Amino acid sequence: MADNTIRDQLAADIWRYDDYIDYAVSGCTQRDSERLAGHLLTKGYRPAARRIETPEQLDALGFPCVIREIPAEDEIEFYPQIWEKPFQTDGWCRAGAVWRETYCTPKLPVEVLVEPEVDR
Description:
The protein is α+β, with helices and mostly antiparallel strands. The protein has 2 domains: about 5-40, no CATH class; about 50-115, no CATH class. The protein contains 4 helices and 5 strands. The protein has helices spanning about 5-15, 25, 30-40, 55-60, and strands spanning about 50, 65-70, 80-85, 95, 110-115. It has a 5-stranded antiparallel beta sheet.
């Protein structure tokens, strides 16, 4: 997702969150929320990774895309598998490996680390 889209979503969330801010008294404007969102992005703010739980959601991901398996809590797994979808027509392959038809699908659930920039 492009920084501008993230900034716009964050600014809208800040503007809607008025439980503790009386905008009429404080003098804050919607433009102030946009400036604050831009400032937070320059300081490194990024939204939480999107969680994919169904095969349909996994199939809907575009390319290039990178995901990481979320291991079950009862398993001891120090290095969850990271998968990439480098091409539109090919399936998933383990990150850094050459794609082969014998590779299987990632175990769900996964979290999206990198996805193509699209307007949402």
